[in-house]
């Protein structure tokens, strides 16, 4: 999906509706949340449904600080019919203890980390600007950061998701999924990030402006290193 098409769809202008795209659902289990005893089996059954793909990520012991989530399930419905059929059973079909939200893919580059070896890292943020502005921020600020790490061989790819639902006591969140290729790549990321940041602060005035004002664009929530679970 091109950025232009995504932004048009987000702001409601005339364009092909987002429903024509695959529907993504992010299922989040917070640390300490008690889920159903058969939660993983429920995800496995959903993954077996035609036109549905489920990717389950669980917190990884390589992370030293407190993780933000216990697990993340990224559910992709390839057709509207598959999503509608699931919805008729209710999002509660996955049971208690999880947050279920549909999300738009703001930007995606590269591929997935190798299952069993890679370290997918999920970072959650609360956007403080409108979706179109957040999409622009992702393109102008986040993408260069991610692509620096891809060029250094640390990361296979990345995806930025943004909750579609807004309002209420549960604010919309964004989720940045970073596909580090190994434990060593994840552990060695900070020197590369700092080196490239110092360079961009000097050479790119727009990037510096966004860096200096990013606290007005999003609020950090949590970051969790994960490992993919075979379903």
Number of strands: 8
Beta-strand percentage range: 25-35%
Given the C-alpha coordinates, what overall shape results? Answer: globular
- Give me the Rg, rounded: 18 Å
Helix count equals 7
| Helix-strand topology string | HEHEEHEEHEEHHHE
Gap between N and C termini, in Å? 27 Å
Helix content: 25-40%
Question: Mean pLDDT score, rounded?
Answer: 88
> Helix/strand-derived class?
alpha+beta
What low-confidence regions span 5 or more consecutive residues with pLDDT below 50? 1-19
Strand arrangement, major sheet: 1-3-2-8-5-7-6-4
Biggest β-sheet strands, sense, barrel: 8 strands, antiparallel, barrel
Describe it.
- With 231 residues, the chain is an alpha+beta fold.
- Helices cover 33% and strands 32% of the residues.
- It is built from 7 helices and 8 strands, in the order αβαββαββαββαααβ.
- α1 runs antiparallel to α4 (131-151) and α6 crosses α7 (205-213).
Keywords:
disordered N terminus; globular; eight-stranded antiparallel beta barrel; 8 strands; 231 residues; 7 helices; alpha+beta
Topology:
Elements: H1 3-11, E1 23-30, H2 39-47, E2 52-59, E3 69-77, H3 80-88, E4 99-110, E5 119-127, H4 131-151, E6 155-163, E7 174-180, H5 183-187, H6 189-203, H7 205-213, E8 218-229
Antiparallel strand pairs: 1-3, 1-4, 2-3, 2-8, 4-6, 5-7, 5-8, 6-7
Helix pairs in contact: 1-4, 6-7
A few lines on this structure:
The chain is of the alpha+beta class. The protein has helices spanning 3-11, 39-47, 80-88, 131-151, 183-187, 189-203, 205-213, and strands spanning 23-30, 52-59, 69-77, 99-110, 119-127, 155-163, 174-180, 218-229.
């Amino acid at each position: 999906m091109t950025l232009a098409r995504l932004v048009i769809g987000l702001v409601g202008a005339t364009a092909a509706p987002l429903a024509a795209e695959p529907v993504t659902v992010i299922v989040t289990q917070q640390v300490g949340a008690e889920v159903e005893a058969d939660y993983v089996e429920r995800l496995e059954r959903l993954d077996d449904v035609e036109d549905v793909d489920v990717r389950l990520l669980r917190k990884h012991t390589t992370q030293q600080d407190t993780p933000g989530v216990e697990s993340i399930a990224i559910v992709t419905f390839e057709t509207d019919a598959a999503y509608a059929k699931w919805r008729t059973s209710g999002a509660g079909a996955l049971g208690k203890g999880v947050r279920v939200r549909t999300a738009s893919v703001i930007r995606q580059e590269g591929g997935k980390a190798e299952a069993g070896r890679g370290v997918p890292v999920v970072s959650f943020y609360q956007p403080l600007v409108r979706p179109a502005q957040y999409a622009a921020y992702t393109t102008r600020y986040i993408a260069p950061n991610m692509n620096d790490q891809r060029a250094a061989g640390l990361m296979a790819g990345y995806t930025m998701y943004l909750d579609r639902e807004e309002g209420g006591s549960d604010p919309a969140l964004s989720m940045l999924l970073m596909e580090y290729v190994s434990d060593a790549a994840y552990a060695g990321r900070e020197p590369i990030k700092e080196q490239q940041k110092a360079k961009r602060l000097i050479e790119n005035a727009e990037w510096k402006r966004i860096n200096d004002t990013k606290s007005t664009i999003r609020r950090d929530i949590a970051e969790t290193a994960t490992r993919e679970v075979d379903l």
